[in-house]
Write a structure and sequence with these properties.
Layout: H1 6-17, H2 43-47, E1 88-100, E2 105-116, E3 123-126, E4 131-137, E5 140-141, E6 143-147, E7 150-154, E8 164-173, E9 177-178, E10 187-192, E11 195-199, E12 219-228, E13 232-235, E14 238-245, E15 248-259, E16 266-269, E17 271-275, H3 277-283, E18 286-292, H4 306-317, E19 324-325, E20 327-330, E21 336-337, E22 343-346, H5 347-350, H6 355-367, E23 372-374, H7 381-399, H8 401-417, H9 434-451, H10 453-466, E24 470-472, H11 474-485, H12 490-497
Parallel strand pairs: 1-12, 18-19, 20-22, 23-24
Antiparallel strand pairs: 1-2, 2-8, 3-7, 4-5, 4-8, 6-7, 9-10, 10-11, 11-16, 12-15, 13-16, 14-15, 17-18, 21-22
Helix pairs in contact: 3-4, 4-6, 6-7, 7-8, 7-9, 8-9, 9-10, 9-12, 10-11
The structure holds tryptophan (TRP) and zinc ion.
């Protein structure tokens, strides 16, 4: 049977359930340029991509940033001009936070270690919602001012180009979901039925910690989350220790690979951290899930295949990119999200018949979206089209190529009637629309039929390896596909990603 659109369906349900949330920016317009050419507004971003991982944990070294003045309010994203900040590169965030579940109060200090990319008299962090008590730069108190969703910081002494510096921001308050410019529902910190977790894609991270909130600036993280006894606090990355104090615990987690801000998460509440040794053996990577207290892997049918899924995707895409993986099952957000090493699943989704598809989808994002991040948000099909195609690859493995071809053909035909936005030019206010997922995946299928299976899987592996722990844009993927296939592919990508109507599939090899 052709199981279809598990993930996108759930996202649509979420949007429907939350309609009425504001924050939609209808004034933003997508660019009209073709994929294979450089997008006009920020020409430095399209062709400059990260270097391969050098093991330093600083995957974005060498990026050419938006050449604006340091006081400009964004890193130069053509869809989200205020997101992120130029002028510095964050190397590490330490989130040292106290959370009071009874009062839903979050507070503490975030310490940001950064390198100046240019001389700085002032610089910005993205931030909204909570209250800042103090800011220090290299240990000395610094003046700060809130301008829109930025905190503008003026250190006592200017920072020289290439200098490493440290920012401490003391802040707190009641964290809440916030409106997004890109999705029609609130994102960020979420509190439901005594559970607390973060779903921040694409622009909600700066509602829970001050940050350079754009995927171009990836960094490593330490989470130190102080909660009352009896409450579990999980976070992205590897569990380090639980430090107990009178009546409280500090849960320490480390993310040792570069991570974008929106993929950073904490999950706090009545949860068990459940290791799965058998699946870890299959996967070759330590699997630990964050499950509703008292439940085990066996209570979530499908979850026992997670190790097998990692092994299979590693065969297709190359080694799993991080040192651990698992999912958290939470209540009340109606979807799933690929937080790095700890994907989040709504409980209802985990109980639904398309759980397996979504397990594959979020897992595939660890390669495509998390390890290889977006250089600009308008290229969202590089995340969602790839993760959706992984769902199809799993169906192919389980049910055969013929089932896959029939299913894709049926889905393709649905786009003949529907008015849709081509996946390479999504509206900025509806970034996660259906075509981004499904026509995005069809674009990869068309590529596969054009270049043949061997070249296709070589392309996917090379893309995952070359841009690991960094970022890429569509032009990077197209260039790599042309390089490996030795074919001219501009027209193919333009037809699928930019133009209307949706093309017919090429005949295949
Ligand atoms: N990236 C998610 C997926 O797997 C979709 C998504 C985007 C999302 N923003 C979100 C889900 C916010 C939950 C909350 O397709
Ligand atoms: Zn996705």
């Amino acid at each position: 049977m052709w199981r279809r659109t598990g993930l996108w369906l759930s996202l649509a349900l979420l949007a429907a359930a939350c309609s009425g949330t504001d924050g939609v920016d209808s004034s933003a317009t997508p660019p009209t340029s073709a994929v294979s050419s450089t997008p006009a507004p920020v020409s430095t971003m399209a062709s400059t991509t990260s270097e391969p991982d050098d093991g330093s944990g600083r995957g974005n070294e060498g990026f050419t940033r938006f050449a604006g003045p340091p006081e400009s309010l964004g890193i130069g994203d053509n869809y989200f001009p205020d997101l992120g900040n130029p002028g510095y590169d964050v190397n590490h965030y330490t989130l040292d936070l106290v959370f009071e579940p009874a009062a839903t109060r979050l507070g503490g200090v975030v310490t940001i270690e950064a390198t100046a990319l240019q001389a700085l008299t002032t610089f910005n962090l993205d931030f909204t919602g909570l209250t800042i008590d103090s800011v220090a730069v290299d240990g000395s108190e610094a003046a700060f001012e809130l301008i829109e969703e930025d905190v503008v910081i003026s250190p006592q002494t200017p920072i020289a180009q290439d200098e490493e510096f440290t920012i401490d921001v003391e802040y707190g308050g009641q964290p809440r979901s916030t409106g997004s410019g890109a999705v029609p529902f609130g994102i960020g910190w979420t509190t439901v039925n005594g559970q607390n977790y973060v779903v921040a894609e694409p622009d909600g991270a700066h509602s829970w910690f001050p940050s350079n909130d754009h995927p171009l600036d990836k960094a490593t993280y330490t989470f130190r989350i102080n909660v009352p006894d009896g409450v579990t606090a999980a976070a992205s990355g590897t569990f380090v220790e639980q430090i107990t104090d009178v009546g409280r615990s500090i849960w320490v987690w480390e993310m040792r690979s570069p991570m974008t801000t929106y993929l950073a998460t904490v999950v706090i509440g009545d949860f068990d951290i459940v290791e799965d040794p058998a699946a870890s053996l299959d996967a070759g990577v330590a699997i630990r899930h964050v499950l509703p207290a008292g439940t085990t892997v066996a209570d979530w049918p499908g979850l026992e295949r997670q190790g097998e899924m990692i092994a299979y995707l590693a065969e297709l895409f190359g080694p799993y990119p991080f040192e651990t993986y698992g999912i958290a099952i939470v209540e009340g957000f109606g979807a799933a999200l690929e937080n790095q090493t700890l994907s989040l699943f709504d409980r209802n989704l985990a109980e639904s018949f398309f759980f397996e598809d979504v397990l594959i989808h979020e897992l595939a994002h660890q390669w495509f979206g998390d390890s290889v991040s977006l250089g600009q948000w308008s290229d969202i099909w590089l995340n969602e089209g790839f993760a959706s195609y992984a769902e199809w690859l799993w169906i192919e493995r389980e049910q055969g190529r013929a089932t896959l071809e029939t299913g894709i053909a049926v889905e393709r035909d649905q786009f003949d009637e529907a008015g849709f936005n081509a996946p390479g030019v999504p509206p900025s206010f509806d970034l996660f629309n259906r075509a981004v997922y499904r026509v995005g995946a069809m674009t990869l299928h068309a590529l596969r039929l054009t270049v043949g299976d061997d070249a296709f899987f070589d392309i996917l592996k090379a893309y995952a390896a070359r841009f690991a722990n960094g970022s890429a844009v569509t032009a990077d993927f197209v260039a790599l596909a042309e390089e490996i296939s030795a074919m001219e592919l501009d027209d193919l990508f333009d037809a699928w990603l930019i133009e209307q109507p949706v093309p017919q599939f090429p005949p295949g090899e």
